[in-house]
């Protein structure tokens, strides 16, 4: 099949989309990713590992608007025309749209060209924007999704909680494709650091409790902390970088190449996954009982692939699964508790190894891309 994926980022650093596209290519399909490059920093057209990428840039009106969320309507219109032109040349068989912010494009194209739509919901998008915007905007997107989802053909999402949610929104089949990583190592290998090493590599923003991490380790003896990643808020990133420089126990790496993330994780003793439990109070379109954070983070899968224990926050889905698998311990999102838990793990190396081995075995058995890939290809087999 000739597959079109729609994506609202420039597709320079999106491991889920890359893994799906690459798996589909390896299965004999062709894949084009239509991506939104808001800042006009990447090539208009390029090919990456066999995946064709076509990028859409902002027009003048979009550049004048203050927030990306207000640019969406104009991008939807612009993207619809650009993809229509692509389809005239390529004749796509299916459109695979990533997240709610590309679904309006896909459904308008379906109405015109009558091809099936796969809705790949990485998260509940309306709830996610509620961390930054007031409730009326949250409710608009939640109910937009509820109205639009009835017109799609297939649903893919990332975990059991979201599967439950989308099954209540729609009678369409819902398939779970986790954001797992490919198997990289055959055997568990314990770390060999002189100092107990805590690692965080990912998005740099206040919801990740990184300032709390730096304060927690700054006066712990024989502990070092490594932080890497990028963030949209330059002032916050600069603050983290400055705090790391001022702490003898912390190192700031900046942006980490994708192929270095898991090797860096394996070098560490502990993966830090303490996300804020701050959440908007909203009225859901269906009855659900979710923890404030109900996603499984990339850090979770990286830790399992590398075989490293996880420090996760309580009252999150990350924490629930970490506790269930026995591959880490939980903490509250405050300096005192984070410091105590890191100190406790530092003094209990046998426990760390036991949890690291549990992480590795879970990653090897279920939480790996090879297993998820089979489920993705089954979805596409059902379309043919």
Sequence-ordered SSE layout with sheet pairings:
Blueprint: E1 2-7, H1 15-26, E2 30-37, E3 45-48, E4 51-57, H2 60-64, H3 68-90, E5 94-98, H4 103-113, E6 117-121, H5 125-129, H6 135-148, E7 154-157, H7 160-169, E8 174-176, E9 196-203, H8 210-217, E10 223-230, H9 234-246, E11 250-254, H10 258-267, E12 270-273, H11 298-306, E13 310-313, H12 317-325, E14 328-331, H13 335-346, H14 349-365, H15 369-383
Parallel strand pairs: 1-2, 1-5, 2-4, 5-6, 6-7, 7-8, 9-10, 9-12, 10-11, 12-13, 13-14
Antiparallel strand pairs: 3-4
Summed up, what is this model?
By secondary structure, the protein is of the alpha/beta class. The chain has helices at 15-26, 60-64, 68-90, 103-113, 125-129, 135-148, 160-169, 210-217, 234-246, 258-267, 298-306, 317-325, 335-346, 349-365, 369-383, and strands at residues 2-7, 30-37, 45-48, 51-57, 94-98, 117-121, 154-157, 174-176, 196-203, 223-230, 250-254, 270-273, 310-313, 328-331.
Name some characteristics of this structure.
single chain; 384 residues; alpha/beta; Rossmann fold; 2 domains; eight-stranded mixed β-sheet; 15 helices; 14 strands; 45% helix; globular
Overview of this structure, please?
This protein is of the alpha/beta class. It folds into 2 domains: 2-180 and 368-383, Rossmann fold; 196-365, Glycogen Phosphorylase B (Rossmann fold), CATH 3.40.50. It has helices at residues 15-26, 60-64, 68-90, 103-113, 125-129, 135-148, 160-169, 210-217, 234-246, 258-267, 298-306, 317-325, 335-346, 349-365, 369-383; strands spanning 2-7, 30-37, 45-48, 51-57, 94-98, 117-121, 154-157, 174-176, 196-203, 223-230, 250-254, 270-273, 310-313, 328-331. The strands form 2 sheets. An 8-stranded mixed β-sheet has the order 3-4-2-1-5-6-7-8, sandwiched between helices. The longest helix is centred in the N-terminal third of the chain and has 23 residues, at 68-90. The mean pLDDT is 94.
């Amino acid at each position: 099949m000739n597959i079109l994926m729609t994506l609202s980022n420039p597709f320079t650093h999106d491991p889920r989309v890359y893994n799906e596209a690459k798996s589909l290519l390896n299965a004999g399909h062709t894949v084009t990713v239509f991506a939104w490059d808001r800042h006009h920093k990447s090539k208009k057209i390029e090919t990456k590992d066999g995946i064709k990428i076509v990028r859409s840039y902002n027009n003048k009106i979009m550049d004048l608007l203050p927030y990306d969320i207000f640019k969406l309507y104009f991008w939807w219109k612009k993207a619809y025309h650009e993809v229509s032109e692509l389809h005239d040349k390529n004749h796509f068989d299916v459109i695979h749209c990533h997240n709610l912010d590309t679904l309006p494009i896909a459904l308008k194209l379906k109405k015109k060209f009558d091809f099936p739509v796969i809705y790949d919901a990485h998260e509940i998008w309306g709830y996610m924007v509620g961390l930054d915007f007031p409730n009326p905007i949250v409710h608009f997107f939640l109910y937009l999704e509820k109205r639009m989802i009835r017109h799609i053909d297939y649903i893919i999402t990332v975990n059991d909680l979201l599967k439950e949610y989308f099954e209540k929104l729609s009678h369409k089949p819902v398939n779970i494709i986790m954001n797992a990583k490919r198997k990289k190592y055959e055997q568990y290998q314990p770390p060999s650091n002189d100092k107990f090493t805590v690692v965080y590599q990912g998005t740099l923003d206040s919801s990740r409790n990184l300032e709390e991490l730096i304060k927690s380790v700054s006066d712990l003896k024989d502990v070092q902390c490594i932080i890497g990643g990028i963030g949209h808020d330059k002032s916050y990133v600069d603050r983290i970088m400055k705090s790391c420089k001022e702490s003898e126990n912390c190192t700031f790496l900046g942006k980490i190449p994708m192929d270095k993330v898991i090797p860096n994780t394996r070098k560490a003793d502990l993966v830090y996954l303490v996300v804020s439990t701050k959440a908007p109070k909203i009225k859901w379109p269906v009855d659900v009982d979710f923890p404030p954070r109900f996603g499984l983070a990339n850090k979770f899968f990286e830790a399992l692939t590398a075989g490293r224990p996880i420090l996760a926050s309580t009252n999150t889905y990350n924490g629930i699964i970490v506790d269930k698998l026995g591959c880490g311990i939980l903490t509250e999102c405050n300096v005192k508790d984070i410091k105590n838990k890191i100190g406790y793990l530092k003094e209990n190396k046998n426990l760390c190894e036991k949890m690291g081995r549990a992480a590795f075995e879970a990653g090897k058995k279920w939480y790996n891309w090879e297993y998820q890939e089979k489920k993705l290809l089954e979805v596409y087999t059902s379309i043919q």
